[in-house]
Amino acid sequence: MTHCILIGAPLDDGQRRAGCLMGPAAYRVAGLAQTLTELGHSVQDRGDVVPDTPGTETSQNPAVHRLPQVIAWTRALSAAAESAMQAGLPIFMGGDHALSLGTVAGVAAHAQRAGRPLFVIWLDAHSDFHTVDSTSSGNLHGTPMAYASGQPGFAGFPPFPAPVPGENICMFGIRSVDPAEHAAMQDTEITVNDMRVLDEQGISLPLRAFLDRVRAAGGMLHVSLDVDFLDPSIAPAVGTTVPGGATFREAHLVMELLHESGLVTSLDLVELNPFLDERGRTAKLMVDLVASLMGRKVFDRPTRSY
Length: 306
What we know:
The protein has helices at residues 23-29, 32-38, 67-85, 99-114, 144-148, 179-185, 195-201, 204-217, 248-261, 281-293; strands spanning 3-9, 42-48, 89-94, 118-123, 169-174, 191-194, 220-226, 264-270. Helices cover 36% and strands 16% of the residues. The protein has an 8-stranded parallel sheet, with helices on both faces. Helix 9 (248-261) links the parallel strand 7 and strand 8. It has one domain (3-299): Arginase, Chain A (3-Layer(aba) Sandwich).
């Protein structure tokens, strides 16, 4: 069984719609630790990360929002991730997707020290491939993948340790990409399995192909699960809803395939905004998805009424 380390990231600075800072508490109330324990895993909750006082960094892009705060979070979460990777499988409870600026950096530093390649699967409606310089919204939750892949345009941020090669990144369920992001990704080897690919090929074929590459390379696999990967009809508690997302069955299949691979070494849970939820249904669904990732089978899943 696995030693799971829960780390709260009550980060709300990567976008402008308040509420994601309540995410870690919602996961705890929805029974994430208890669910993992019932599956036979050991669980340590390290509480919520608290960043240092923000600096005075500025950007040449006037649209950018709360840059010093996001940089402070990036430093703090990177340190927390690197530490947790030495002890078990960290599960970062967010918080908006800007948290991945730090979590992926910390995981990458650990992988580099371990002498293993890092792979990332990005379960998200968005590619999050803007830079601080390119973002028109100014919301830095749209930048983590560009940062992780070593793109320029992140002045003020700590240099990313061992940038993740494009061929080690798989974007899965993408259905909203800005023109600047699309242009930037054209020069990379990133695998983009958008919803058309999944509609045509199904879930298992493209996912298994990526997992085979991770396995062949002896890689570590970081999974970043955004609530908006899911269709908003089943997961309303997110401020960036995009129609046409993964269904309940598709999402659980992804998690079960990831579990069966035995390759996952770290996990982000991001963009849960409990203020937008309906009686906790999205938080409970996300906890159920983690349960599938950690070994719960279809016939073990409880029936719920909301």
